[in-house]
Amino acid sequence: MRAKGVTGATLSRMECAGEILRLARGIYQKVDADLVAEHSLAAATKRAPKGIICLTSALAFHGLTVQMPRSIWMAFSKSEWFPRSGHPVIRGVRFADPYLDHGFETHMIEGVPVRVFGIAKTIADCFRNKRLVGSSVAIEGLQETLRQRKATPAEIMAEAERGRAAKTILPYVEALTANG
Predict the structure, then answer these.
(1) Do the strands 90-94 and 72-76 form a parallel or antiparallel pair, or are they unpaired?
(2) Stated pTM of the model
(3) Whole-number Å distance between alpha carbons of 23 and 59
């Protein structure tokens, strides 16, 4: 808005008149705007542009779980700042730099480039962080990935090897692919 010459006072008047809604500091939307299901991911990315959508939020984005997380899970480097309050609520997870450097895709959501971890990487991360998301969510994501054929067992195991989760995930992959 600043690039278009709109001042803070004008935004305040528009908010009081009911023309726009203030979602968070510096984030506004039209009252009659068409919202997409991933709207909260775009808003979270605007609040924390260096974060990458991960774990349960990435599973939900890819359509691999029926779980709707109460907060947006985002991965950050060990030294990166992220907002701890506000809307949408961001649940930050610290990943070591080697785990952040690869495996993400950039999707345009409402004109915002949103980085989301890919399917195979998300499954491996869920098993690597089972204490955060729970075993049932990780297993459900793996089952749905294989059922919908969104990633092959080889792709999942390659990401698990890279993420040091191969020993954890191997029995589940073998059990789910035992009969072809």
Answers:
(1) parallel
(2) 0.82
(3) 24
